[in-house]
Structures are given as C-alpha cells and as structure tokens.
Amino acid sequence: MSDMNGYLLREQAYTAGDSTFVECTNEENNFAVVFEDDTDTGYFYAMEVEPGTGKQTILDAVHIYNIEEVPAQQRQGTIRIIWSKDWQRCALIINNYCHAVFDFENQGGYCRNEFPPPNSIWTKGERTLTNEMVAAFFK
C-alpha cells in the first residue's frame, strides 16, 4: 500500500465481524464509497450523490469477506479509503492490503474474489482485482 499515490480521506480502526459503516464522499465530483460490515459479511459500495439533494444511488457493490473466513487473529485492524489524484478511482485498504477498487471514470468495480459477477449496469467485464491493476490505477 505504501506505493499508492493518492489521497487518504478516511482511516479508521475496526474489528471484522463488528457492525461497521464507513462512508467517504469525494468533494471533487459527485461520487462516494461506503464500506459496510453487517457482522456477517463485508461489502464495498460505489455511489453517486445527486447535487443539491444529496440523494445517493448505488452504482456497484463488491464483496470483501465473509466473517467466518477471516481468522480471529486478523480481525482487528485499520480501514483506509484512498482516492486517486484525479479523483476517478477509489481503493479500500484493510490492514495495508488493497481489497477493492472502484474506477468511476470507466464504470468498473474490482475485488480480489470477483464477487458478485459482473453486471449489465456498471461493471460489464472482468472483475478480479490484481496487484498490477492497483499499481496502474494509483501510479
């Protein structure tokens, strides 16, 4: 994560499996992201915020984890949300590991486990996030 070139807008301690809601609005455009842990699963959402009203529309969502798959010794940590310098991409970093990226410019949501499958609305192609993609997004 140390080589990611962007803006750290949120940093928060958390415990996987505890109810968590971390929202991060991009003031440079009308986009926002949310990380949510509902005590069973972790998801990362891309949203558009309507100017004036603040109404939020979910554009895409990617699965981060199921709590039963997270070892107990790895559940406490830090969430970081980093926006690229052009404000078009946003990454979810948990414990110094990039789990997901939303590319608002190209309408793509990417995560390590490629779930849910691509949809016909926003992410239409490959959804798997790779280290090479992370490096390219945040160079």
TrEMBL record:
Pfam families cross-referenced by the UniProt entry: DUF2251
Entries under InterPro entries matching the protein: UCP007050_HI0931
Protein name: DUF2251 domain-containing protein
UniProt source species: Niastella populi
